[in-house]
Amino acid sequence: MPSVLPGSICAPPGLAMPESLFPARQDDAARLAAIDAETNPSPWSADAFRESLARSRGFTVRDDAGVVLGFVVYTAVAGACEILELAVTVRARQRGLGRKLLDAAIEDAVGEGARRCILEVRDSNTAARALYASAGFLVDGRRKAYYRTPEGREDALLMSCDL
Ligand SMILES: CC(C)(COP(=O)(O)OP(=O)(O)OC[C@H]1O[C@@H](n2cnc3c(N)ncnc32)[C@H](O)[C@@H]1OP(=O)(O)O)[C@@H](O)C(=O)NCCC(=O)NCCS
Fold first, then answer.
1. Which residues 6+ apart lie within 8 Å of 160 measured at CB?
2. What is the predicted pLDDT for the residue at 17?
3. Domains in the chain and their CATH numbers?
4. Which of 19, 55, 65, 118 holds its CA 20 to 30 A away from the CA of 105?
5. How many CB atoms lie within 10 A of CB 15?
6. Which of 94, 107, 93, 18 has the alpha carbon at shortest distance from 9?
7. Does residue 132 have an active-site annotation?
């Protein structure tokens, strides 16, 4: 598992709430599923997170009371980091936590020998696409009608970044 990477962000006065990164644990699975279900049209179950965390790597970001605000689950295999899931709870978004989680996963994967990071994102997911673009990811391709949506299906964009 990744080592603990302590860290904090600066928040405006009144919103001050130091957040720190921790390795994701299997007993975080229910909370991760709850965060995922806030906005993912096809959320992972708690069991799916538990199984994935047994095989993959992950970080959570927690507030100073220990409440998980966001997470990243990823693999670091054969020179590549693959971001499997990344989410921040709605009330903690747009404060830098998504970027902090992505950076932590990449830093850990680079330590494991990764030279490239890959992921898939819904075409309509402007927030995630903005995050990945600002981190240097480029669109490599598109899987047509890959994801189910309440309205039908939508494309997946394949993105990657050389590390
Ligand atoms: C995508 C997500 C993880 C971003 O987390 P976040 O903590 O809000 O992101 P950050 O505050 O770290 O922002 C990172 C960058 O993305 C941009 N961004 C974040 N949300 C945005 C939005 N709604 N619209 C436009 N840009 C946005 C920020 O401006 C920032 O850009 P910068 O680095 O150039 O300043 C979050 O919106 C989320 O959990 N979404 C639901 C789950 C999801 O879609 N996961 C991705 C699956 S592939």
1. 116, 117, 118, 119, 137, 138, 140
2. 54
3. 20-121 (3.40.630.30)
4. 65
5. 8
6. 18
7. yes
Q: At what angle do helices 126-134 and 97-111 cross, to 10 degrees?
A: 50
This prediction has a pTM of 0.91
Residue closest via CA to ligand 1's atom 38 equals: 87
Amino acid 148: pLDDT: 87
Q: What is the pLDDT of residues 80-124, one digit of tens each?
A: 999 999 999 999 999 999 999 999 999 999 999 999 999 999 999
| 4 C-alpha to ligand 1 centroid (Å) | 23
CA-closest residue to ligand 1 atom 35: 134
Percent of the chain with pLDDT over 70: 90
CA-closest residue to ligand 1 atom 25: 127
129 CB less than 6 Å from ligand 1?
no
